[in-house]
Design goal:
The chain has about 120 residues and is an all-alpha fold. The protein is built from 4 helices and no strands.
């Protein structure tokens, strides 16, 4: 590889690192050390982070839009979120937007449901 090629790779890596750091710092709240909880008890900032790491790949980065596998889930009720995330089922009487069974149960997210619901409001 030529020296120019190595320089270009180093520059790309530097930009990636800078973007990663900027992304991480963008979520920091410098004015308060307390979480920004809603009246219902969830923290939408934490919920967004959970959504991006657990849901966005199938649903969409924008929860108001359909994803490649899952439907739009913006404004989903806590009952629907709980049923889908914890048990991979639907609440009684709910008609699914898509008839698939691709979503697995994710019971490890139980304590994060209020945060996820706060983000999806």
């Amino acid at each position: 590889m030529s020296p120019v090629g190595r320089h270009q790779i180093g520059t790309i890596r530097s930009w990636r690192l800078a973007l990663l750091i900027a992304f991480m710092l963008a979520g920091c709240d410098k004015e308060s050390n307390s979480p920004a909880q809603t009246a219902e008890g969830g923290d939408p900032r934490r919920g967004r982070a959970l959504y991006m790491s657990n849901c966005a790949a199938c649903h969409n980065n924008d929860p108001s839009r359909d994803g490649p596998v899952g439907p739009a889930i913006k404004r989903s009720s806590l009952a629907l979120i709980e049923a889908r995330v914890l048990r991979a089922t639907y609440p009684p009487g709910y008609t699914p937007k898509r008839k698939t069974s691709a979503m697995p149960a994710q019971p490890y997210l139980k304590s994060a449901l209020p945060d996820l619901a706060a983000f999806l409001r």
